[in-house]
Amino acid sequence: MNHNTRIAIIGGGASGLMTAVLLARQGFSVTIIEQKDKIGKKLLTTGNGRCNISNRLAESRHYFSRTDNLMAYLLSEFPVTKALAFFESIGITVKELEKGKLYPYSLEAKSVVKAFLYELEYLGVPVLYQTKVTKLEKREKWLVKAEQKVEEAESKGVNEGRNPKTAKDGKKTSDKTKSLSLSFDQVILCSGGMSYAVSGSDGSGYELARKLGHTIIKPMPAIVQLVMNEKQFPYYKHLSGTKTEARVRLLDKTSKQIIRQEEEEFLFTSYGVSGPAVLLLSTNVAYAQANHQKLELSVNFFPEKTKEELAEFLLDKIEKVPHFTIEQIMEMMVPNRLIGVLLKLAQIESAKPAEEVRMPELKRLLDLLTDLRLEVVSAYQWQQAQVTAGGVSCLEVCPKTLESRKAKGLYLAGEVLDIDGDCGGFNLQWAWTSAMAVAKAICQ
Questions:
Q1: pLDDT-flagged residues of the chain (< 70)
Q2: Edge to edge, what strands does the sheet with 94-96 contain?
Q3: Are residues 113 and 200 in the same domain?
């Protein structure tokens, strides 16, 4: 037991909450410092409010880093099974849905947040709410300076969204905030990235790390919709809301090299494209654009067929109903709003009888059905991003313990580091894996 070791956890998100529980169980004196009025705010939004807590298929190939992808080792030491065992210990049993995605049995994210709240209250872990850390200073101990809203200073309890052990050594500087100067033996930075800033992950943790000598890899929005070139394809507003299954390839526009491809639901928006296929590709867009690559998508609306098979399929329909117009035949094949766009691009009159469509016209149509090219402008806004690509360089932390190589006694976990994963529970698994790694390192 380590009752005299005081540890500050900056950020009451996924990684911070798990780290707090694991360390408090071992007798450490843990304090969570959270700048919002509640903990687990971003956790409440995951999986569309159902909390996609992890993914049974989590392995290093689902993770990305521009510095050093630590996941191969970390996942071998702290796999999904260990995360699930932890959740069982706080009353959360998971169920597996499609593609390895794991959810709490309730299918409600608030169940997970409540389980953390109950366990933190049982362990007596104080939470300083609405408290923004402004500086970390390494002396003999760690000095943590922060600004706290005064109305949150008198608290009721963790379950009330308040802190039962609010610090008493703060100096009031105004009617609304007071300054805190707190001393700790160790600090764990779990401040998140820049995605979904309303939850508290506003990027402020990067500045804290930078002032301690860390390199910040430029943060970029990931798992996010894409903004497309409307001059190259001026039909996005018309097609907005149209969705279909498709194979979507991300291509380097110059070399035509395939960067990645996904076969999932594909959605047109008023400004570009979205849907699971696009969200999976968006991280690769962030990394490619960081390298100044020009990008385009290749969309195949019939991924289950070869181009030759699709040609036979279309010709067979024309042969069976030659009196139908080409538009009427297309109505049996693709979403309605897409038909006029494809026929216009293929230079075929919608009212033309199918039997009169010439082979060059059919070839153009087949090309569009199997390889519609769309130019990428950028990822969409930060407000829409689910995670952050980039962050504190992984080269500057110990790969096994995640302790800073710049400041002894500082640990980093979760999205603040330059690691992000695919959508589908992989990013929350990174939060749990990194939390377990840090907790084990401190306990040893």
A1: 1-3, 151-175
A2: 54-55, 101-104, 94-96
A3: yes
